[in-house]
Structure formats: structure tokens, C-alpha cells
Amino acid sequence: MDQFTLNLIVVGATFALYIGIAIWARAGSTAEFYAAGRGVNPIVNGMATGADWMSAASFISMAGIIAFGGYDTSAYLMGWTGGYVLLAMLLAPYLRKFGKFTVPEFIGDRFYSQTARTVAVICLIVASVTYVIGQMTGVGVAFSRFLEVDNATGLFIGAAIVFMYAVLGGMKGITYTQVAQYVVLIIAYTIPAIFISLQLTGNPLPPLGLFSDATATGKPILETLNGMMADLGFGSYTEQKDTTLNMFLFTVSLMIGTAGLPHVIVRFFTVPTVKDARSSAGWALVFIALLYLTAPAVGAMARMNLINTIYPDGTSAAPLAYEARPDWVKNWEKTGLLKFEDKNGDGLIQYAASKEANEFDVNRDIITLANPEIAQLPGWVIALVAAGGLAAALSTAAGLLMAISSAVSHDLIKSQINPNISEKNELLAARISMAVAIAVATYLGLNPPGFAAQTVALAFGLAASSIFPALMMGIFSKRINNTGAVAGMLAGLGVTIVYIFLHKGWFFVADTASFSDSDPLLLSIKSTSFGAVGALINFVVAFVVSGATKDTPAEIQELVESIRIPKGAGAAVDH
Amino acid sequence: MADNSSSNAYWKANIKTIQVFLVIWFVCSFGFGILLRPMLAGIGIGGTDLGFWFAQQGSIIVFLILIFAYAARMNKLDKEFGVEE
């Protein structure tokens, strides 16, 4: 059986499974559509949160970014896991106690202001749509490879499937399909990693393999890789190349963005008790850590295998002839995401750090998907990875679209524009907003502002600068009032979005950018790291403005008191 | 709602717990992984240094322990102060 047929069978089988579950659990009432009836066990919820959380950025893109960035990219690893500590201690239990359905609802009630709620909706939509653009980039890469079409066609097919999928079920469908998706994606991620770790080090556990000796050289993997990279003129894999300031702020930005992303927070509204909200965050991180502890090994080993493919006789000998290139290179050439240009006309593939000499151009987003092919693993592993990548992208895109649609239909239309809207029309509005979000994200996904993980990092910056500070201050300070919160959110989001647009182009249209991340406007702070600064601005503005305006009313102070203690957390209140 | 003095004491105990946990969280990620990495450069592990390990693996393991430890500690505090659900 050829690889294409095998891909179709494996991907088709997993899709049939997800769609089957979605139909079986089709959402009935609005309460079910948003929060899955609030009866989800912490371990199941943790697994679903894991699938929701680990998107195309984690699955498809991150290992490739690590493979090419080395130590500097540790920010992704620490940032996207460390945020769960903040979530578990600073947000999840109190938001569960509060007991409503959406993040803007909390902000609107705590800051007793419809304006605050509307601003929160705007922050949520801006962050989530940016996030979906990153997902679409990943979906495009995955579909283009496994259907063997060019990148744009892959993107359109992927967008159509995401739409059908998200519109079909609500959160309930999504909770159980996400459990299935988690299982598919984690198996797909770890199996090739185990094979590759065994091949290179003899150790079947990739996280240990990363720090073991390479069987080929007898020296540690990382030392061997550093040596190979030095031969080709690349900097050392384990050295820090980024500035400490940027790396620090980037990590902060990703961490607090994690704790501020509405599609993740909303998961903690669906557990039965406050106690479960705390442990749910832990279970989510257990399931996430399985992938995140594997990713650095996948990155380093993929880089090593990539160099070995081009330089089969070692980095000091002659490289591979273009005519002798392996099948995986030919396959990926079709997608346009891997290119070879024979600059010196010698028919050999030179791969080097210097721009003039390098003839081999690899899109980082293909590394995870190409990894099993590079390591010459069996066909079913390759098909499994394609299915896993799609599972990751689909589950997150669906979760984000849920967050967007509930913000529009529930927080905007039902609460402000037309309170008498029927349940049926509310669901219709939710679905229309999903369709619009997908269309926008697909259009922008054709010319994305970066690799999938980098685009997603921008979304984290936006969430970090707007939603996280508002939630945290709402819980930990009684003094922050309506005016302060609104001013803080607007200042944080505004400054961050302008900084991002200055570097990535206005509305992500690349040729309107005035600065670049290699030479940023402020010190060495890249646009992906600015969320941390935006968050600081948010906090300061909120405190200063609140200090200068009227104190919060007594009933709001009581509300804050009551969300701080678990006692009395009943079922959620609909309204 | 529980009486005010007990819930105030509960909240204070919670804040103190959070502070201690956040210090550990910070030191094991931003500290050992980034800011203090040069200080750990002498300690080798698998072809690199301990700071690299913390940045790519150690921090994640510490995060996991922290969340479950916090959940356990809060469950105990909930009972102690009589504010459990």
C-alpha cells in the first residue's frame, strides 16, 4: 500500500471517530452548548484541556522551532507549561466559585459594568482570532502534506473541515471528542519520538535520550549536535543567543497568556467543585507535560537527523547530491514548504549557516510531520503523525471558536443587544460568528505573520496584556473599580496590539510593518515578548485610575469575599 | 458564607501559601533556566549544563509538583477553616 492511501485510511478513521462522538453528544440546550452540563470529572477534564491547549503550535510547530532555535526556544517550553501554576493558584478555583459561563461575564459582574464586559469581549476576540490564524497555518501544512497538494489548497480544505466540525457540536461534543483527540495526538507524538530516541541513543524514553550518549559517536547527543552545527557554521545548540531581557519577557508573556486565554479558562468552569478546579489544572498539566517533555528531544534529534540526511558521510565530508535526495524531500517539495536552490551549480545540497552558501530552505513547521520520514520510520507511523497533527489543530480551533462564538452570542448579543433573543437564535448567532472567525483566520492564514507557534505566541501576548491582569485584580484586589479595570484593559491591549502591528504589519499585512523583530523598536523586546510589558501597563493604569476614582460598592466587595472561599459553590447560575 | 474572621484568616493563609509557591515557581524556571544559568554552568548533565536541563525539563517537572502540592494544601486549609464545599 502506498503512503498516500495509508494516510487517507488513518486520518479518515480518526475523523470518523471524532465526528461520530460529536453527533452522539450533539448539544441540546444552551447550557449544554457552553459548559457541557458541568459534570466533567477532573481527569477527563484535564485530558480535554490538554487537547484543547495543545494546538498546531505545540504539536506541529514547536519541535521545529526548538530544532532551529536551540536553547533560546526554552521560553516556549517553560512559558506554555508554567502558566498552569498561575491558573491553578490565581484564577481557576475562584472563577469556578463565581459560577458563570464565560470570562467576559465575570469581568462584567466583578467590575459592575457592561462596558467592562464589552471590552473583555473585544480582548477575547482579538486574542482568539490571532490564535486561530496560527492554527490555520498548521492545518494548511498538515493537509497539504498528507493530501499532497500545495499549501493554500491544504489550508482551504482544512478550513472547511474545521467549520463543519466546530458547528456540529457544542462544548459537550467537544469535551468527549477532545479526549479522543488527546489520545490520538499523544500516541502520534510519542511513538516516532521513541523510535528515534532508540535509533540515536538506545534509550526508549526521549526525555532521557536527550541527555544520553549518541550510539554513533559515544559522546552525549547534545555535544555531538553542537559539534555538527559548529562544522556548518551554525551557533551552538545549547548556547543562549537571544538577549536575557527578551527571553525573560517572552517566557512571562507566554505564561500569563496561558492563564489569560479564555478557551482554557472556560474549561475550569465545567468542573463540579472548586476543589476539582485546582486539581484539574494539575491533571491538564500532566497530560500536557507528556508532550512537552518529549518535544525538546524531538527538536534536537530532528535537527541531528536532518543534518545527517544532507551530510550522510559526516559534516566535514561532501553533502548529498540533489539527484540522490530521499523521497521525503521530494514529497515535501510538492507542498512548497521545502526548497532547494543549487546556487553554485555543483548538483550537491549545501546546508550551511551563511545565507550565500546555503541551498536548503526548510519551513520549520514541517519538522514534526516530516520527522518520521526523515528517520525512515514505517509508513503507519507517518500516517499516525499526520492524524495527530490534524487532531491537535482541530481540537484547539474548535475550542477557540467556541470561546469566540459564546462571547459574541452570549456576552454581546444576549446580554446587551437583544436580551429577549430565543435560544434557537442565540445558537444561530453563535454559529454565524464561528463562520466569520474561520473566514478571517483562513484569509490571514494564507500569509501568516510567522510560523504557527510564533503567530500563536502573539495571541498569548494579547491575552497576557488584557485578560489576565483584569481577572487577577478582580480576585485579589477589592479596590480595583469599573473605570480602573476598563482603562487598564484598554491600555494593555492597545499598547500591545500597536507594538505587534508595528513589527508584523497593520492587521498582519506584512508590508505595512515599520520595524522588524530582528531590530525591534524598544531595546531587544520582540513583538512576541511585548505582552509582558502590556500586562505591566495594564496593572499600573488600573491601580492609578482606580485610586483616583470612586471606591467599589459594598456589594462588589462582598462578591469578591465570596469567590475567595470555596464554601457555597453551587451549580452554575444561568440568567 | 462563613463568618468573616474565619474567612479572612483562610484568605491570609492562602495568600501566604501562594507567595511561597510562586517563589519556588520563579526560581526553578526564570531563575535556574534563564537568569542564574551562568552560575550553574559548572554542573554538567548529558553534554550540557544544569541550567539547560531546568529550562527544557526540570522546570516542567517542578510545575507539576507545585500544582498538586497546592491543591493538597488548600484542601487541608479548606477543612481547617471550615470553608469546604
Automatic annotation (TrEMBL), chain A:
It is found in: Membrane. Pfam families: SSF. Gene3D superfamilies: Sodium/glucose cotransporter (1.20.1730.10). Keywords: Cell membrane, Ion transport, Membrane, Sodium, Sodium transport, Symport, Transmembrane, Transmembrane helix, Transport. GO terms for cellular component: plasma membrane. It comes from the Bacteria. It is a multi-pass membrane protein. The keyword Ion transport applies. One of its GO terms (biological process) is carboxylic acid transport. The keyword Heme does not apply. One of its GO terms (molecular function) is symporter activity. The chain crosses the membrane at residues 6-25, 53-71, 77-95, 116-133, 153-170, 182-200, 247-269, 281-302, 380-408, 428-446, 452-476, 483-502, 522-545. Belongs to the sodium:solute symporter (SSF) (TC 2.A.21) family. NCBIfam families: Na_symport_lg. This is Cation acetate symporter. It comes from Pseudothioclava arenosa.
From TrEMBL, chain B:
It comes from the Bacteria. The chain crosses the membrane at residues 20-40, 52-72. Residues 8-84 form the Sodium symporter small subunit domain. Pfam families: DUF4212. InterPro entries: Na_symporter_ssu (IPR019886). Keywords: Membrane, Transmembrane, Transmembrane helix. The keyword Transmembrane helix applies. This is Sodium symporter small subunit domain-containing protein.
